[in-house]
From TrEMBL:
Family in the record: Belongs to the cysteine-rich repeat secretory protein family. Plasmodesmata-located proteins (PDLD) subfamily.
Signal peptide start-end: 1-19
Official protein name in the record: Uncharacterized protein
Organism: Daucus carota subsp. sativus (Carrot)
Region annotated Disordered, chain positions: 247-268
Transmembrane intervals: 274-294
Length: 321
């Protein structure tokens, strides 16, 4: 007498297929605050035959990384009177302490990799930056342009520059009353600005105003832009189809900068369409598997059906013998 066979169920496979389809339809977007924006490396290399500067820089890095888990801005000086090194870090104002730490902790390695050991270096990521300067390094103006980027697409149409300039005006006033960081939206325009943490209110306002003027002149009707001055930066993005909603106002992702005319809604609909097509194909394949399995059982028992299976409009239940 043959032993009864254990139930066989293909349902977990079916659910796994649809779980993967869900990932296709709604892909998870990783935070992009660790993306490199630019590097600034002094041309003069650090003369350090005894290694005292290297030790001082290493100590500086350790202090800055440690403080990044507690605050979004920190500035300090290390070394002796002959090897004084000043350094600081700053995270974007909407990053959590954890995100700030994760961002800043990457910077020492990036600095060594991208710059080596110059007398001064600055590495800017989307979510944070770090810099150090050896005593005696020539200082530059806080309004010095360090980096700019303007979106390749032109917004065109009427009223774009008016909407952008109104958003900029709100940004200028908001950043001075918002402790050096401010973000807002106005009629499909998203703007963000931040000043260095030790900048006074008046100087912060002047810096952001200068950055705004740079954006107006140098980016023109570009759909997006970023202007980084030595002591502040601004960014803006225009969304013709409306600013996409974020899961949280303190999301660690930086503002989305569109690179094409497609809107987030269009991209989401495309994902749903793909999921429907693949889901239909998976469903048909699943039904075929059930039928072949039942047919195999019937053949193995000389045509005597001792198998039972049930098909519904969506699922095939366990086939038992």
């Amino acid at each position: 007498m043959s032993l009864p066979r254990k139930p066989f169920c293909i349902l977990p496979l079916f659910l796994t297929i649809f779980a993967n389809l869900e990932l296709i339809a709604h892909p998870k977007s990783a935070p992009d605050y660790n993306t490199l924006v630019y590097k600034g490396c002094a041309k003069q290399s650090l003369s350090d035959p005894s290694g005292v500067y290297s030790q001082a820089i290493s100590t500086l890095y350790g202090t800055l990384v440690q403080q990044s888990s507690k605050t979004r801005f920190f500035k300090t000086t290390t070394g002796t009177s002959q090897t004084t090194i000043t350094g600081l870090f700053q995270c974007r104002g909407d990053l959590s302490n954890v995100d700030c730490y994760n961002c800043v902790s990457r910077l020492p390695t990036l600095t060594d990799k991208l710059c080596g050991k110059p007398v001064a270096a600055r590495i800017q990521l989307l979510g944070c930056y770090m810099l150090y300067e050896v005593a005696g390094f020539a200082q530059i103006s806080g309004l010095e342009l360090l980096y700019k980027t303007c979106g390749g697409s032109s917004a065109g149409g009427t009223g774009f520059q008016e909407r952008r300039d109104t958003a900029f005006s709100t940004l200028e006033s908001g950043v001075t009353s918002g402790n050096g960081f401010y973000t807002t939206s106005y009629e499909s325009m998203f703007v963000l600005g931040q000043c260095q943490g030790d900048l006074g209110t008046s100087d912060c306002g002047s810096c952001v105003k200068t950055a705004v003027q740079r954006a107006q002149v140098e980016c023109g009707s570009s759909i997006s832009g970023q202007i980084y001055l030595h002591k502040c930066f601004i960014s803006y993005s225009y969304y013709p189809n409306g600013i996409p909603k974020r899961s949280s106002p303190t999301s660690s992702s930086s503002p989305y900068t569109p690179t094409s005319s497609s809107s987030p809604d269009t991209q989401q609909n495309t994902g749903k369409t793909v999921a429907i097509i693949l889901g239909g194909a998976a469903g048909v394949g699943f039904l075929v598997i059930c039928m072949l399995f039942a047919r195999s059982l019937l053949k193995k028992n000389d045509g005597k059906s001792i198998a039972h299976f049930t098909l519904t409009s969506k699922l095939c239940v366990c086939v038992c013998v």
